[in-house]
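Margin note from the TA: students keep mixing up input and output lines. Inputs are the sequences; the output is the structure of the whole complex. Example:
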Amino acid sequence: MHELSIADSILEAVRKERERLNHARITKVGVRIGELAGVDPDALSFGFEVLVKGTDLEPLVLDIEFKPRRQECSQCKHVFTVAGYKVDCPSCGSRETRCVGGEELDLAYLEVEES
Amino acid sequence: MSRVTVEKKVLSENDLIARRLRARFEEHQVFCLNMISSPGSGKTSLLERTLERFKPGERVALLTGDIQTDNDAKRLARFGFPVKQITTGGTCHLDARMIERALTDWPLESLDMLLVENVGNLVCPSAYDLGEAAKVVVLSVAEGEDKPLKYPSIFFKSDLLILNKIDLLPYVSFDIGKAREYALQVHSGMDIVELSCKTGAGLDGWMNWLAGRREMAKAARASTSGRE
């Protein structure tokens, strides 16, 4: 259960961004979690809620966008979403594909109240 | 309400320290491996068998992570190489800051290789870069052969899969062919070595992989410095 550590890192990052934004009121933080990131979105939401409660950042909302694994075909350059671990190219059948998405653990955006 | 784009890594702080560590390892030509598995799959036994095979003069050191106790460090210290225990006190993974802290009083110039034994856990350690040259995942045949499908992140990020405890194969229902197939589904092209720390079978395969990767790192370094 490292999602609590991840949630803590998100709050730390939000605090840093808040300084950069001249202490604007931040209402929502958007993150992208890839399916290969090894982070469970539900556990992360839970950990986030627990950590944010009673802090200066409350009520801060966490918005998680889940990103599936994506591969690019080395032959025909087709980019596709992987379902059921099938990494062969669905377009040309090539077995030579490389991972181009699904490892995300990114802070994407903040929603800030206009002053 | 306005939206501000940030586009940063959530673990940018950890990644920053990991980059710093990687640069230090590079500077002092230290080959670092991050060894990961679930609890009880035999990481410490594998390290014992590995240290046994090193010559006394080998410049290798170990960091071993656990939530509590320094039992593993004691087991590994018997071989005469420097060992340090990192006790996380509850945290389920090692992070780059713990490694950096553990290395403060360790001169990297006296080392050629650093083996890091992560906390027994197939999930959390996969998210934290420790500045290593490669991750190695250990799976024992006493577990389920579908672990690669259940915990894809760590199998995807590891360069080598070690299938350990193959001496138990006659007694368990583990399908080693399936385990290989699942691992390659998640990470095509990943190296796989089957071995038993108990009988010693397959250990040469692991030692050869290790030697090969160290040679590769050395060659890469030589070609980079040649270009400069």
